[in-house]
Design goal:
Layout lengths: L8 E4 L2 E4 L10 E8 L3 H12 L2 E6 L8 E8 L2 E8 L5 H9 L2 E8 L3 H10 L4 E10 L2 E9 L5 E6 L12 E2 L11 E10 L4 H11 L4 E6 L10 E8 L6 E8 L6 H9 L3 E9 L2 H10 L11 H9 L6 H7 L2 E5 L2 E7 L10 E8 L9 H15 L3
Parallel strand pairs: 3-6, 7-10, 12-15, 16-19
Antiparallel strand pairs: 1-2, 3-7, 4-5, 4-11, 5-6, 8-9, 9-10, 12-16, 13-14, 14-15, 17-18, 18-19
């Protein structure tokens, strides 16, 4: 059953801090997410066109970078960096060869990147990159990094002494093609898929190495269908701005979505990014108009949803038309929907979420969601 860990929150310096979290690693928020991709220019065009991201920053041959090109796109507080290598023997090329287009870096904004590195490495983290400085005429940035699950890494980014557009080495990127944004505001949470037995290992990593707390645990009774199941622990940092659910497969009659991901990604990795909006109906209508494909929710889902969630402000018929799901907890309700994978491999996808007070993750929608995913797996022949 769902296990709500005994975490109390209290006010600290204007931010809510989870009592269960050891706040030796203050994190201000997600700085950026970097994807290694086969063609960064085309990927940037896709995220601008389909998701409403805006041209933001560029690094490449024209800026003196001889080994790769990176396009940074931005919407609200969300920055995606799309990086393509030139050298087929490079580490980036190897990552793409093994995983396809996927998330390499989850960068965290901190006040002191050296302290963040020392605190985590001293507690057992494997170093990815020791603290170093990058600078230009706009100041300096300090960066350090550690390994986490699979080939995913966390970079700690200290930018208090920098006033440039993004990072040293990047120049401002403007373009004539600028589709309007679609109301995406910030990253709500990012989900990692790990191997069987890896969930406790990596939840312990976030607790012991990074000072996170276990916000909520779901077992295979919470997240299961007739055929498949998984388990999940949601880890949160002290101020609650960073939430990392960690999923692992559970025993079932057929191959779960986690196993499918691990097979096609070639190991653990970031399965999906949940991004927040203030008007999910407007956001999803716009994304559908631009060609984004979403998981199909069975029409029968809406026959009983009103009884379960009670009164909401939105038009239920409009939610049904768009395939948006609803769930409620003690704090309020939320609305959410999931894209189909945005890569040819059935790996990375996005969740669009609007919170109307709810702090949970849509437990009441799990069954319908996973049945929808299983229908897609069956079409792919991977169930």
């Amino acid at each position: 059953m769902e296990n709500l860990t005994n975490i109390k929150d209290y006010e600290y310096s204007g931010s809510k801090v989870f009592e269960g979290a050891k706040d030796f690693l203050p994190i201000n928020g997600t700085d950026y997410v970097e994807l290694y991709v086969g063609n960064a220019k085309q990927a940037a065009h896709f995220y601008k066109t389909a998701f409403g991201f805006q041209s933001f920053a560029y690094r490449g041959l024209e800026t003196g970078c001889k080994d790769s090109t990176s396009y940074a796109v931005k919407q609200g507080k969300i920055v995606l960096v799309l990086t393509t290598p030139f050298d087929p023997a490079s580490e980036i090329s190897d990552h793409i060869r093994r995983h396809g287009d996927g998330i390499k870096v989850i960068a965290l904004w901190v006040d002191d990147a050296r302290k963040a590195f020392n605190e985590t490495v001293s507690r057992g983290a494997k170093a990815y990159v020791e603290p170093y400085e990058e600078s230009d005429e706009n100041g300096k940035v300090v960066i350090s990094g550690i390994h986490t699950y699979g080939d995913t890494v966390h970079l700690f980014v200290e930018r208090k002494n920098y006033s440039g557009v993004f990072l040293p080495g990047f120049t401002s990127w403007s373009s004539e093609y600028n589709p309007s944004d679609l109301g995406l505001q910030y990253i709500d949470h990012m989900v990692g898929n790990v191997e069987l037995g890896g969930m406790n290992k990596w939840s312990s990593f976030y607790e012991e190495v990074m000072g996170f707390a276990n916000l909520v645990t779901f077992d295979d009774k919470d997240i299961s269908t007739k055929y498949t199941a998984l388990m999940s622990k949601v880890m949160t940092n002290g101020n609650g701005r960073i939430k990392f659910p960690i999923n692992e497969p559970a025993k079932g009659l057929k191959k779960s979505q986690i196993e499918e991901y691990l097979d096609f990604y070639g190991g653990p990795g970031c399965q999906h990014i949940a991004v927040a909006t203030k008007d999910i109906i407007k956001t999803i209508a716009g994304m559908r108009d631009r060609g984004v494909e979403f998981l199909h929710v069975p029409g029968s889902y809406y026959d009983t949803v009103q009884e379960r969630v009670g009164v909401i402000e939105e038009d239920m018929m409009k939610l049904k038309e768009l395939g948006i799901m609803v769930d409620r907890d003690e704090e309020g309700y939320l609305l959410q929907i999931f894209t189909k994978p945005v890569e040819d491999r059935p790996t990375l996808f996005f969740e669009i979420i609007q919170r109307k007070g709810a702090k949970s993750f849509g437990k009441g929608n799990f069954k319908a969601l996973f049945e929808s995913i299983e229908a897609e797996q069956e079409r792919r022949g991977t169930l």
